[in-house]
Amino acid sequence: MLGPIIEGEKIRLEPTSPDYLPEFLRWFADMKVTRYLLSRFPMTLKQEEEWFENASKDRNSVHWTMTVDGKPVGVTGLNRIDWISRSAISGTIIGVPDAWGKGYATEAVSLRTRFAFEEMNLERLESQSMAPNVGMHRALERAGYQRVGIHRRYMFREGEWIDSVLFELLRSDWTARGTKT
Q1: CA-based diameter of the chain, in Å?
Q2: Residue 153 — φ and ψ, nearest 5°?
């Protein structure tokens, strides 16, 4: 399903629009952007349109586009929502390299986390980030996520094996922080 509009100080999370799909194609064709993603192969416009159609109907995921001044800079979401265990896998991608390091991921993670706990009544969120992606680690930790493990030699990139760092956040830990973004 598509997420509702959530206004932040720096970014706005909004439902993904089919108008953004050509921009996504450019992002996912850029090997700098996909460096730490599981897939490095770009989709066709038809595949992106099929993804959008499926994502907008999927009751076990919530997808947002991150915009700054009306322009898409990234995506974030909650996936594989388990409504019985009240858990989800979370993720964020900043697709515009010029937008890296500006705090957009930090705010997206915080906004998405608040929505997951306050609006969806989830209990546990999980995320993973490749070991060299320290910017994403900081964004997760600022929202209260804790490192809970390492998947060693998780992916092969640019001639070397890269570990994946597993993060999680429980509602009780988030609430104890008094976090309200």
Answers
A1: 45
A2: 50, 50
pLDDT band at 69 (very low <50, low <70, confident <90, very high): very high
Q: What is the DSSP string of 121-145?
A: ---EEEEEEETT-HHHHHHHHHTT-
pTM for the whole structure: 0.91
Split at pLDDT 50, 70, 90, the class of 98 is: very high
Q: What angle do CA 13, 14, 17 make, to 5 degrees?
A: 140
Contact 122, 171 (CB under 8 A): yes
Distance CA 160, CA 6 (A): 39
Strands annotated E in 48-159: 62-68, 71-82, 87-94, 124-130, 146-157
Cβ-Cβ contacts under 8 Å for 150 (sequence gap 6 or more) = 131, 163, 164, 165, 166
Residue tagged 């850029």 (tokens):
30
Write down the pLDDT at residue 180. Answer: 53
What is the Cβ-side half-sphere exposure of residue 143, based on CA atoms within 13 angstroms? 33
**Tokens describing residue 32:** 């700098």
**Residue tagged 């697709």 (tokens):** 95
First to last CA, the chain: 23
Query: What number is the average pLDDT over the span 147-166?
Result: 95
The overall average pLDDT reported for the chain is 94
Domains of the chain from N-terminus onward: 6-176 (3.40.630.30)
